């Protein structure tokens, strides 16, 4: 009985327990021939087949994930007998251990009792902890044919970072005890907001089913439309991409945009249907949607649950089998493409790059082709996922280098690295320059912080290649910078990073897009700052940027979305049904209307179900005017905006009213006016604080009273001409905030 039990052990019980016992299981498994993992009471028919009907589904998934990891653990450590998954049933998962002599294995019983499992688990703590690999083990050189470089792309929140976590965990790249959710999102801001902002690279070692060890370089990418520039850069460093689609939500706007980016880069795309553990997941419908909308063949699509760790091995196998290996160009002269970099206060600029050809070693002097600067490499390594030094990197690999590079401009993203003094090579194509869509002024609250702000922006630009800036002076705000961003979220993130990482206190002006201003003499100037708009008499007309926006929404919300787009001067282009329940709405509308709170409105009107994606389609002429705000007769430049003539009155009213509320009363009357050129379109005034000069005049002659009042009025007038209105910081911020909403 005992021998049979050992040959055919079986775990029955609480699935959480089963999953926890996996290290023990692995130690025991080596002693058995066939082991079944049971999830008692699981009602599903086939694990990966269909939509789950009960919470027990999750339990079965946990069991499976534990089981897959056991197999991998054995395979990776070159155990004589690698267990093989032979059956995944409705209630049990079966493994075989070929050629292992059967011995009695305590803790495993054909009936499987909870106590046994607990004992098993306790022993496992001492016996079978899966050890982390040593650095050497992680970095040994592998032939190019066994390197795979891939990205994970998806719509926002479809589970890229969670999938990356599971891949790191499954391959033992990160120890279980060090694992935390969204491991690669290492910026505080990313973790707080639960979004990926920066691309992140990680190198994994994986022993595939064919018994070979592969190096997998993973680049996790952000999903928000504002960070698509990060996605395009990471894709250029890869040969394949995992397209993650939430099986409960289906194809979303950013899924499409990212697929097109991947296709432009000729990448092999592997569709992965994630979140199959969710009760609402509909894998078949999702596959059909991908085929119909995206046009990808989904016969090889993988069903997975990044949260439960299911399907992870299938994904790794698919990467090995389907993503092409890089070209073997180790013999050619060294060329590498910089895809990211950041500034380290102690080591200078750290450059992340993909080796395209040849090899590079510690001590080599490298040349950055664009800047022409040369540096000796002090440190060379791979991201595993923390930086791990190596002696050399070869064609096809992804790594980092540092060489006391102090000037941030010397090693820019997109530049080609070569070895100094060697045969000249042609630079790699690099990346298209990011085109900022939104501009705003950034000013330090404390004028002394201006040099710090410049320094911080330079360093941040290194890490955020889409950020553009140039100095700007404003009469009201002093010295600052005009900065360009890819969108509002990008702007917010940069502001927060500057304040947190560089300890700056900033004022940020209302965002503006870039206008094409045609002068009367035929010349054209690009204006991104309303304060610089030429006077009305010098202008012939203004053109503003237009975007084509695609919104994917459940059909119930079509009405509210159409209303939203129409209110924002949108022109309807088309509407098509993706499935019976969801459709795509396409509009063309001014970028200026999109970069305000369009996204928030879209989410709130559709209870968060709709998604959007947009791209620039060109410039169109419109009736645009510059709206100025005068406080006490003085124009306030930072509050000037460019708005459509039809909206100018409404915006002017709102802004003047808000300023009236916020500016404290002075000893004299303060007029606040919104003007277009010389024409005042809205005005408010803040009454003066007055002393009652007639208080002591009981009765008496009227001329006496008049004299006192006249004297007071004269005093106020003098005060007004000398007086300067200090707009408090909070008032300024509040008005800018309002401006962002109403313009
Ligand atoms: N139920 C379930 N939830 C999941 C699964 N994968 C991810 N999630 C959840 O989905 C949310 C978003 O996951 P992320 O991994 O941050 O998504 P992302 O695509 O990296 O998001 P961005 O980086 O912001 O684009 C998190 O709350 C995850 O816990 C899954 O397989 N099942």
Automatic annotation (TrEMBL):
Report the locations given in the UniProt record: Plastid, Chloroplast
Main location per UniProt? plastid
> What GO molecular function annotation could you give as one example from this UniProt entry?
translation elongation factor activity
One of the protein's GO biological processes = positive regulation of translation
Write down the PROSITE patterns for this protein, in alphabetical order: G_TR_1 (PS00301), G_TR_2 (PS51722)
Annotated Gene3D superfamilies: 3.30.70.240, Elongation factor 4, C-terminal domain, Elongation Factor G (Translational Gtpase), domain 3, P-loop containing nucleotide triphosphate hydrolases, Translation factors
Query: Which ranges carry the Tr-type G domain?
Result: 145-327
Q: Which reaction does it catalyse?
A: GTP + H2O = GDP + phosphate + H(+)
Q: EC no.?
A: 3.6.5.n1
Q: Name one GO cellular component term.
A: chloroplast
- Where GTP binds, per the record, is at 154-161, 220-224, 274-277
A Pfam family reported for this protein in Swiss-Prot or TrEMBL: GTP_EFTU_D2
Keyword presence, Plastid: yes
Which InterPro entries is this protein grouped with? EF-4, EFG_III/V, EFG_V-like, EFTu-like_2, G_TR_CS, GUFP, LepA_C_sf, LepA_CTD
* Entry keywords, A to Z: Chloroplast, Elongation factor, GTP-binding, Hydrolase, Nucleotide-binding, Plastid, Protein biosynthesis
The answer to keyword GTP-binding applying to this record is yes
Family (UniProt): Belongs to the TRAFAC class translation factor GTPase superfamily. Classic translation factor GTPase family. LepA subfamily.
Write out the function statement from the record: Promotes chloroplast protein synthesis. May act as a fidelity factor of the translation reaction, by catalyzing a one-codon backward translocation of tRNAs on improperly translocated ribosomes.
Q: What is this protein called?
A: Translation factor GUF1 homolog, chloroplastic
Q: Give the organism the record lists.
A: Klebsormidium nitens (Green alga)
């Amino acid at each position: 009985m005992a021998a049979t039990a050992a040959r055919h052990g079986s775990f029955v019980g609480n699935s959480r327990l089963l999953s926890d016992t996996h290290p023990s299981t692995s130690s025991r498994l080596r002693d058995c021939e066939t082991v079944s993992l049971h999830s008692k009471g699981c009602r599903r028919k086939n694990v990966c087949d269909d939509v789950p009907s009960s919470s027990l589904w999750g339990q079965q998934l946990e069991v499976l994930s534990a089981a897959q990891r056991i197999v991998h653990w054995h395979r990776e450590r070159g155990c004589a007998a690698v267990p093989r998954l032979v059956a995944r049933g409705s209630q049990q998962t079966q493994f075989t251990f070929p050629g292992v002599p059967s011995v009695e294995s305590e803790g495993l019983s054909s009936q499987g009792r909870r106590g046994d499992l607990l004992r098993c688990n306790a022993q496992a703590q001492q016996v079978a902890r899966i050890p982390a690999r040593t650095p050497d083990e992680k970095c040994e050189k592998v032939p190019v044919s066994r390197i795979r470089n891939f990205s994970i792309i998806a719509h926002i929140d479809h589970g890229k970072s969670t999938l990356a976590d599971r891949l790191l965990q499954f391959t033992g790249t990160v120890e279980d005890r060090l694992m935390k959710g969204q491991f690669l999102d290492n910026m505080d801001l990313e973790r707080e907001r639960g979004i990926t902002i920066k691309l992140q690279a990680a190198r994994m070692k994986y022993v595939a089913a064919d018994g070979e060890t592969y190096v997998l370089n993973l680049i996790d990418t952000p999903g928000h439309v504002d960070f698509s520039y990060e996605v395009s850069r990471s894709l250029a460093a890869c040969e394949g991409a995992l397209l993650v689609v939430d099986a409960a939500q289906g194809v979303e706007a950013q899924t499409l945009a990212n697929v097109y980016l991947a296709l432009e880069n000729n990448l092999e795309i592997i569709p992965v249907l994630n979140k199959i553990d969710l009760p609402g997941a509909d894998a078949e419908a999702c596959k059909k949607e991908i085929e119909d909308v995206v046009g990808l063949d989904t016969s090889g699509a993988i069903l997975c649950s990044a949260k439960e760790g299911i399907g992870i091995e299938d994904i790794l196998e698919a990467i090995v089998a389907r993503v092409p290996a890089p070209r073997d160009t180790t013999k050619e002269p060294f060329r590498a493409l910089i895809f990211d970099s950041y500034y380290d206060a102690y080591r200078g600029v750290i450059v992340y790059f993909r080796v395209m050809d040849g090899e590079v070693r510690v001590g080599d002097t490298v040349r950055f082709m664009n800047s022409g600067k040369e540096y000796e490499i002090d440190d060379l390594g791979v991201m595993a996922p923390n930086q791990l030094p190596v002696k050399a990197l070869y064609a096809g690999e992804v790594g980092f280098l540092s060489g006391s590079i102090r000037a941030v401009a010397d090693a820019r993203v997109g530049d080609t690295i070569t070895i100094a003094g060697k045969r000249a090579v042609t630079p790699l194509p690099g990346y298209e320059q990011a085109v900022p869509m939104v501009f705003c002024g950034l000013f330090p609250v404390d004028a002394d912080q201006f040099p710090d702000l410049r320094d911080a922006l330079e360093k941040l630009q290194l890490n955020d290649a889409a950020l553009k800036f140039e100095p700007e002076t404003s009469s009201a705000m002093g010295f600052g910078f005009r900065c360009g961003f890819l969108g509002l979220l990008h702007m917010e993130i940069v502001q927060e990073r500057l304040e947190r990482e560089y300890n700056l206190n900033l004022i940020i002006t209302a965002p503006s897009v870039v206008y094409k201003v045609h002068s009367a003499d035929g010349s054209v100037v690009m204006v991104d700052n309303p304060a610089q708009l030429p006077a009305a008499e010098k202008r012939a007309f203004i053109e503003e940027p237009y975007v084509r926006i695609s919104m994917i929404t459940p059909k119930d919300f079509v009405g509210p979305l159409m209303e939203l787009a129409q209110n924002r001067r949108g022109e309807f282009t088309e509407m098509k049904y993706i499935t019976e329940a969801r459709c795509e709405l396409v509009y063309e509308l001014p970028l200026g209307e999109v970069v305000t709170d369009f996204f928030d409105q879209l989410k709130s009107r559709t209870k968060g179900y709709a998604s959007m994606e947009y791209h620039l389609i060109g410039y169109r002429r419109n009736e645009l005017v510059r709206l100025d705000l005068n406080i006490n007769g003085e124009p306030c430049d930072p509050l000037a905006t460019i708005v459509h003539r039809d909206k100018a009155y409404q915006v002017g009213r709102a802004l003047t009213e808000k300023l009236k509320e916020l500016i404290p009363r002075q000893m004299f009357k303060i007029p606040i006016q919104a003007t277009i050129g010389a024409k005042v379109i809205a005005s408010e005034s803040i009454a003066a604080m007055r002393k009652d000069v007639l208080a002591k005049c009981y009765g008496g002659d009227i001329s006496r009273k008049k004299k006192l009042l006249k004297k007071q009025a004269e005093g106020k007038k003098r005060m007004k001409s000398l007086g300067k209105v200090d707009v408090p910081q909070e008032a300024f911020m509040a008005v800018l905030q309002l401006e962002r909403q109403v313009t």
